[in-house]
Amino acid sequence: MIRLTGFLLLWAVRLSTVGYGQGAAEAVSDARYEKLKSGINIDNWLVRKDGALTAGQYTEADLKLIREAGFIHVRFPIRTPLMNEQQHDKLNRQELDTIKSVVNLMLKNGLAVVFNPVHPSREYTARMEADTAMQTGFVRFWSVLAKEFSSYDPERLFIEPMNEPFFKSAATWYALNDRVLKAIRQAAPRHTLVVSPVKGNVDVVEMTPVADRNVVYSTHFYSPFSFTHQGAPWLKKLPTGQRYPTDSLNAAYLKTDFFNPVTAWAKKHNVKVYMGEYGVLNTAGYEDKLAWLSDVGRITTDLNLASALWCYSPGFSIIEDPKAPAGQRKFDQKFLNALGVK
Predict the structure, then answer these.
(1) In the chain, what percentage of residues exceed pLDDT 90?
(2) Closest by alpha carbon to 227, among 199, 198, 255, 248?
(3) What pTM value is reported for the model?
């Protein structure tokens, strides 16, 4: 009877992870999670010009600067769609080689990489939510794309299937997300996957953890939004002049509004969280931005939380002169100190 019970228990455990493949039952090690500490996003490294995916303004000099500053990983978002909507499982070989050349350069310079090749517009995700055929195509697309990157060292390359899905129906996104994770896991059994909630921010606390244990859960932090995005040209209703800290908007507010519920959720489910984006537009006052980054830096350090600043590129940058040419850029040391980058 004891042997039968043990057999049934083992079979139940196998069933709980069926479809995810080898590696899914292994939780993310502390050593691997450490690779996600002290990160920075590099937005628009690759842009589409005349229909072709090509390198923009960034070079190896930028990666050397990032590594020398003390960052240990980069998040590599690609905004332009890569999926062929007529032939979902047919990849553009030239574009694939271009992407791999950038990833190889990042790894060569001692940086771990969060590979986020689907950082789409709201229009793109809205079409995907409404089109079940496109969803199926997206699963097939990831099946072949994951296979292409499965040979990379899983200790240094992390795979993030989609940035901020923003589906109107959370149920639709989580059903698609489950299919995508299973497809990636079949092709890349050992890589850690970055799982996104439907909106990408504190709504991670509303998620039911996936069966795959070799994942980290993404969340983005821009609170208070009226401060971090003041004067954003794509948001006409957020005036400049917002201050931080104030009597009500301070480190205690940040903890209550975001960090406390997120870390409580992670502890409850025994999972790891990755704050893949956080930052302040340069339209905020310098000292206000410095104060916000100082508070966030202290909180993430105290919580031992993996994170990546948004971003190296102009707009939210912590570069002294973001428009300076490659090889002449320098980080603002006060901002680096605020973040606790070593």
Answers:
(1) 87
(2) 248
(3) 0.93
